[in-house]
Amino acid sequence: MAGAETLTDAWALALQQDHSLAAARHQAEAAGFEAQAARAQRWPTVAVGGSYTQLDDSPAFDFAFTGLPLTPPELFEDDKYVMGSASLTIPLFTSGRISSSIAAAEARERGVGAQVTAATADVKLAVADSYVEVLRARKAHGVATSNVQTLEALTRDTTSMFERELVPKNELLAVQVALADARQNELRAANAAAVAAAAYNRRLGTPLDRPVELSEMLAVPVELSQDLPALVEQAKSRRTELAAFDAQAEAYGQLARTERSRVLPQVALSGGYQYLENQFLDDETIGMAGIGVQWALFDGGQSRKRAAALDRNRRATEQQRADASSQIELQVRQAYLGIQESRQRVIVTAQAAEQADENLRIARERYTAGLGTQTQLLQAESMRVQALRNRDDASLDAGLAQLRLARAVGAL
């Protein structure tokens, strides 16, 4: 269909508009900033400060105990003073605290990035499901319309035969009831198609009433192997969910090392500058430099317990990773078997649809010739409708099964 919207077009729209994917991207950006912040711990820390103080009465030195008639001036002129400071701190040795925290932040960044890739694939598969549902609903509506058209023709024929007194009235009534039921099914199918289109538009982030014309070609992004063990191995190496679990487990391990290092020696180089406005010191500015060592010999076991908790989280994540690996293998197997089934159904249902058309033609000729019953004719039409539905479902399921397998192996 020229100008019809393709699945690739739908993916492009959805990836721009999907809120869950946008949230995952923001989380990835946040993890990137956290990693940058962690790396910044290695850089010097510079701080400046200052204050202006007004006193009710400036203090002064008291030499009355000497018995000498000395009246020293006040420490601060006009009962006020200004003070300023600047300090510089450079970590020299942290027992691995900084390097472990950096490694943990970078692992989290990788993990969240892997989750974005998985979320993207999930969105694409969800869009494909909605896309196929629109095609399925519209095909069902088309079949329902053809059923109405067939029964309308049968009603006209039966009416003509009844007027010529070739059939009893109950046969006319029976086909009229069947036509009314078919029209009801057509209305339901039309409504289902409209609802499916609205749900599809919502998935793409477009107005719900946007008219859409969809191509029936379901694109498969990659050529997939026909060998099940190879597909399983491909999935285990490419599914980013597993990479996310690996990164999360690594992050927990590095955070545990960070906690343990807090009770180990921390060495830092520090320097500073201070200014104090006064009337007694010969130099109001003071510069300083030094090396400081801090060693938390006892913290009540806080760091040790936090490290143990993080280690348990790491083990839990490893178990979740193992379970996810098993689930992925099952998904690949299910999708692979789904392809085999749908391909066979396509062949079977196509043959059945042809046979149902021929069966209806013969039943109609026999009924017109007075050799068949109306029950046989209506049954043939019901069989035709069901065969067409099965054929359309099988064709769409075959395309969707390939997309699900592509998702299962991490190729979507």
Structural commentary:
By secondary structure, this protein is of the alpha+beta class. Helices cover 66% and strands 11% of the residues. The chain folds into two domains: 7-43 and 94-263 and 299-408, Up-down Bundle (Outer membrane efflux proteins (OEP)), CATH 1.20.1600; 45-93 and 264-297, Outer membrane efflux proteins (OEP) (Single Sheet). α3 packs antiparallel against α6.
Beta-strand share of residues:
5-15%
Main sheet strand line-up: 1-2-3-4
Q: Give a short account of the largest sheet.
A: 4 strands, antiparallel
Class of secondary structure makeup: alpha+beta
Shape: elongated
Annotated CATH architecture of the largest domain = Up-down Bundle
Domain count: 2
Superfamily (CATH H level) name of the largest domain:
Outer membrane efflux proteins (OEP)
Number of helices: 8
Task: Produce the secondary structure layout.
Layout: H1 7-17, H2 19-39, E1 45-54, E2 80-93, H3 97-163, H4 169-204, H5 228-238, H6 240-261, E3 266-276, E4 285-294, H7 302-368, H8 374-408
Antiparallel strand pairs: 1-2, 2-3, 3-4
